[in-house]
Amino acid sequence: MKRICENGAFLIQGKYYLFNNLWGANTGAGSQCIWKGLSNQLDITWGTSWNWTGQHDTIKSYASVVWGWHWGWIVSDTGLPVQLISLHSLRTAWSFDLTCARLGGINVTYDIWLSSNPDSGGKNPTGEVMIWLYHTGDIRPIGSRQTSLTIEDIEWDLWKGPHPVSAWPVYSFIRRINTKTQNLDLINFFQYLASAGLSDSDYLLSVQAGAEVFTGEGRLDTTFYSIDIESL
Predict the structure, then answer these.
(1) Span 44-83, pLDDT tens digits
(2) Domains of the chain by residue range
(3) Model pLDDT, residue 192
(4) What pLDDT does 44 receive?
(5) Alpha-carbon gap, residue 211 to 52, rounded angstroms
(6) Strand segments (E) across 69-202
(7) How far apart are CA 159 and CA 48, in angstroms?
(8) Under CATH, which architecture does the 3-231 domain have?
(9) Is 164 exposed, middle or buried (0-12, 13-18, 19+ CB in 10 A)?
(10) What b/e string do you get for 36-64 counting C-beta neighbours within 10 Å, with b at 16 or more?
(11) Which residues in the chain come in under a pLDDT of 70?
(12) Do strands 82-83 and 144-151 pair parallel, antiparallel, or not at all (unpaired)?
């Protein structure tokens, strides 16, 4: 089992890569590691563990699996970017085990990046969509709560606000009941946001999935993860 703990380190795993992103570590003290498990052309397994103290309302890390872009490209031939209007489906499945040795703030979330420019390279995106499947502690998404809605027979709260540093819009769908197993077609979230003003001419740059940690000590083991894209 290959394991990495350095900030910014990555492990390629098929069409994905595992990224140990400790971008907020300066707001606390601690560490996070990520490791890869089994993989094939369709799905992968992987895990991450963390131990953070510090400001309870600031993110310390987001160790995740990345499909596509993150201020540049690590893996080629991902099928991305792709324009939202040309998507027929974007199915994803995620099952994980979560253990917390010391309670704190954490959300297990998709982080999806959009841009009006398909050749964005190292430039900032023009939009971000988060889908929280599980969260603990007194943590809040960016912005303010806009509404409650149902997508795929699941109740969500939608939050919206500008990114605090770079001001791109962040849309956060917060599952009202935590889950450790979820199957979704992400196109349903894009279609809802299109009715709220998101441009379907934007490009999907990447889908990331991982543990966004504020404080606490714990471990997430992904037992199954996959993404399957189908274009028109």
Answers:
(1) 999 999 999 999 999 999 999 999 999 999 998 899 999 9
(2) 3-231
(3) 96
(4) 95
(5) 13
(6) 82-83, 87-102, 106-115, 127-136, 144-151, 154-162, 169-175, 181-185
(7) 27
(8) Sandwich (2.60)
(9) exposed
(10) bbebeeebbbbbbbbbbebebeebbbbbb
(11) none
(12) unpaired
